[in-house]
Design goal:
two-stranded antiparallel ribbon, 7 strands, alpha+beta
Length: about 220
C-alpha cells in the first residue's frame, strides 16, 4: 500500500507572507470587514471576535482583549488540510487543522484588542495576513455560544471541494505522516499534539483528534 499522501502544489497558504497580499485576498478581507461593520450597533459594540480552534489558541496573532470558551454549531475541527511548507514538504505533505462543515466545535472566542477603530483595523489586517495569504480558506462569521452570552466571530473554514482538503486517511497514512511530515515550523505530529494538549488544558476533549493521534509512532 502506498501510504504517502499526494503532494498538492506548493502554495502561500502555508504561511509565506508576501509584502503585499494578492488582490483576491485583499478583496475578501475588505468584504469581511464590511460584513462586520454592517452588523447592528449592539453586535459591533461587543467588539470584533475571532473563533480559534487550533494554533490560534496556543499561538495567537495578538494578545486578546478577552477570551471565552465557545461552542460553534455546524462546523467541526479537522486535521484535514494538506501542508507542503509549514508542517510538511511537497515530497512529504503534512496536515494542519481547518474548520469543516458538519457537527460542532468547541474552541475559544477571542476579542481583538484596539483602543479605537484604527488600531482594531490594524490587528484585523495582521490576523488576515497570517491566515489568508491566499484564498484557500473561506472566512465566515459564525455564532459562538459562550457562558457569558453569544457573540458573532470570524473564523476560517475549508470547503470540502478545495484541493487542499483531505478526507479521513487510513491508519497507515496517518502513521506515515506523523512519522515523516516535517516543515519549516516543525512536524505535523508536534502541531497536532500541541493543539490537543492546549484543548485539554481548557477542559476541551476532542475525541476525534485523540483517535487520530493514536496512529502516531510510539516513542
Amino acid at each position: 500500500m502506498n501510504t504517502q499522501a499526494p503532494a498538492p502544489a506548493v502554495s502561500a497558504i502555508d504561511g509565506a507572507t508576501p509584502a503585499t497580499l494578492p488582490a483576491e485576498s485583499i478583496a475578501l478581507r475588505e468584504r469581511a470587514w464590511a460584513q462586520w461593520w454592517a452588523f447592528d450597533s449592539i453586535t459591533r459594540a461587543q467588539g470584533l471576535w475571532v473563533f480559534a480552534y487550533a494554533s490560534l489558541i496556543w499561538k495567537p496573532q495578538f494578545t486578546p482583549a478577552e477570551q471565552r470558551l465557545a461552542r460553534v454549531s455546524g462546523w467541526h475541527r479537522g486535521l484535514s488540510m494538506w501542508s507542503t511548507l509549514n508542517r510538511g514538504t511537497p515530497q512529504r505533505p503534512g496536515l494542519v487543522f481547518a474548520l469543516i462543515r458538519g457537527g460542532h466545535c468547541r474552541g475559544v472566542a477571542q476579542r481583538l484588542p484596539g483602543d479605537n477603530l484604527t488600531s482594531l483595523r490594524g490587528v484585523f489586517n495582521d490576523l488576515w495576513s497570517r491566515e489568508m495569504v491566499t484564498a484557500i480558506y473561506q472566512a465566515r462569521w459564525v455564532r459562538c455560544q459562550t457562558a457569558q452570552g453569544d457573540v458573532r466571530a470570524m473564523t476560517f473554514t475549508l470547503p470540502k471541494e478545495s484541493e487542499r482538503y483531505c478526507c479521513e486517511l487510513s491508519p497507515a497514512q496517518y502513521h506515515d505522516i506523523f512519522r515523516h511530515a516535517n516543515g519549516r515550523f516543525g512536524s505535523t505530529l508536534e502541531y497536532a499534539q500541541q493543539t490537543e494538549a492546549s484543548l485539554r488544558a481548557l477542559g476541551i476533549i476532542d475525541r476525534q483528534l485523540q483517535r487520530v493521534l493514536r496512529h502516531a509512532p510510539r516513542a
